[in-house]
Amino acid sequence: MAEIMYWEALQRAHDEEMARDPLVICMGEDIGVAGGTYKATKGLYEKYGPLRVIDTPISENSYTGLGIGASFLGVRPIIEIMSVNFAWLAMDQMFNSAAKVRYMSGGQLTAPVVFRSPGGSAHQLGAQHSARMEKVFMGIAGLRVVTPSNPKQAYGLLKSAVRSDDPVFINEHELMYNWKGEVPEGEYFHPLEGSEIARSGTDVTLFGYNISVHWCLKAAEILASQYNISAEVVDLYALSPLDRAGIKQSVCKTHRAVIAEEDEAPCGVGAEVMAIINEECFFDLDAAPVRVHSALVPQPYNHKLEMAAIPDHEDVVNAVLKLFGKA
Amino acid sequence: MKPEDKKRVLREMVLARRFEERCYQAYIERKIGGFLHLYPGQEACCQGVMEAARPGHDYVITGYRDHVHAIKCGSDPKEVMAELYGKETGVSKGRGGSMHIFDVKHHFMGGYALVGGPFPLAAGIAKAIQLKGGDEISICFLGDAANNQGTFHETLNMAALYKLPVLFVCENNQYGIGTAIDRSTAVLDQFKRVCGYDIAASQCDGQDFDVVHEHAKKAVAHVRNGNGPYFLELMTYRYRGHSMSDSRGYRTREEEELWKQRDPIFILRDRLIDAGAMTMDAFHALEKEIDHYIENEVIKFAEESPEPNVAELEKYVLA
């Protein structure tokens, strides 16, 4: 397995799928001639031309709708929305058209479209460029939501999303495009449902997804070496549908749970995982589950304020220590 | 167009009118739920455009006033009525309802209930045609009020930029829900708003089938011949309210009567009678025959069809 960067993994998935099927196209702002803000579509314009690598105007709702309309006829568009903050503008088409068309047409139409968009705090981008919005997408019937935590998942999830007959939203993180990881040399399809045990443990389960998986892994390391606590890290790469069985299985084993998310707490991934724990394994718990999350504020510009607003691995460690009465 | 074809068109327009009036009755009887947006008064628009296009071959998409467009594309009126009744035999298997008629085998790509929502979808369908290299065109029927959505401007820009084979038909019935166009829109002639995107456009009477048909032939040819999008504005009028709960307090009965004197069915009927191609007796017989068909086949089918199985509530959410 070769180590490549997250953006390279995405680029490779685009390239392979476009080479395989002439009806796979990609579209978005600056993705063609400019090569993509985060390079996920680098070199594709030169290789596949302007009919299939479409530089769009800054009209999020309508270029998203255009991709959805094309998907009704079997085209498989990969639509990049430059920042998830701009996806608010495209939600009408994503939610009202893509997610509902299969149901309201009685199964006649489906929208096999992939939406890719990064969110998250990435060095003082301020309130309108730093939001996380996975909780908004994961509440929508008819829309799949996945969120890769490493290059292997980024590659494999995009490959699977392109082949899926459902609309899939891929939630990426602006900080992670240059992160490295191993990706199989051969073709690899990551499942769009389920979860992954990123580190096995026995005393507490740390649930993370996307960037927070890395906080959890770092926290698990510290907990093991400094506090003799064995933490299991579960990577929730699929946010909709969530892996009910996987969540249950791990919590039944460890009897304690911490859910880490960069998003704000209300109506979020943590809230949803806690609800599942309540429903599935309440009597297996040795302590009440805890959420680690951002402060409920628009992201501040000032660096110190920004760091105070978002959690990190230390917050995860502290949450676990509280669970064990050690803090 | 031959007199025989015009008689067929007249028949389809009468069917469209009687179908919609029967829906009104069924709604009052609570057989049809939800919102119901009816088409009487605008029949020449759909007929004139689609007679110039290829129904069932060209792709059609529209808003929530969609029953008649589906039937014109080839949908069985029985299945459309069954959909309004919420039955499993409905075109959308009872999951869609009046505002979400879909019949993909006839290339009717759906009714959508967000005003202006179909604009980009229509452009996307055109993009798919462009990629696949087919000779179909994408036709988007919407009302004048949709033109005040951002999707109108964003989509026109992209349709022109990518030279997409899409025909935008604006059925200007002069009301957006209950607000008159001169109270919501700075420029009343909708075709003028399109010049900012360098898109070919024209405007004509939407009550006279022959006039619509002539203009639509040019518009369809323009799009099919690879010249990019076209915007056709048809001046028309909606006899009923926006939907069933609308008592039309925002306009005068005099205005309504004035428009009813230019009824699209009567205009075509009288022209056929004047040309000696039809008699008034034959027209009345046609109306009776259609009423009989609607009552004894369309309504009967909808009434007698089964409802969806509740155990299949979650079918069709994901593939």
Would you give an account of this structure?
The complex is a heterodimer of chains A (327) and B (319). Chain A has twelve helices and 14 strands. Chain A has 327 residues and is α/β, with parallel strands linked by helices. The mean pLDDT of chain A is 97. In chain B, the strands form two sheets. Chain B has a six-stranded parallel sheet with strand order 2-1-3-4-8-7, sandwiched between helices. In chain B, helix 1 (3-28) packs antiparallel against helix 11, helix 1 packs across helix 12 (280-304) and helix 2 packs parallel to helix 3 (67-73). Chain B has helices spanning 3-28, 43-52, 67-73, 77-84, 118-132, 150-161, 181-184, 190-193, 209-224, 253-260, 264-274, 280-304; strands spanning 59-62, 108-111, 138-143, 166-172, 175-176, 179-180, 200-205, 230-235. Chain B has a single domain (3-305), classed as Thiamin diphosphate (ThDP)-binding fold, Pyr/PP domains (Rossmann fold, 3-Layer(aba) Sandwich), CATH 3.40.50. By secondary structure, chain B is an alpha/beta fold. Chains A and B meet through helix 3, helix 4 and helix 5 of A and helix 5 and helix 6 of B.
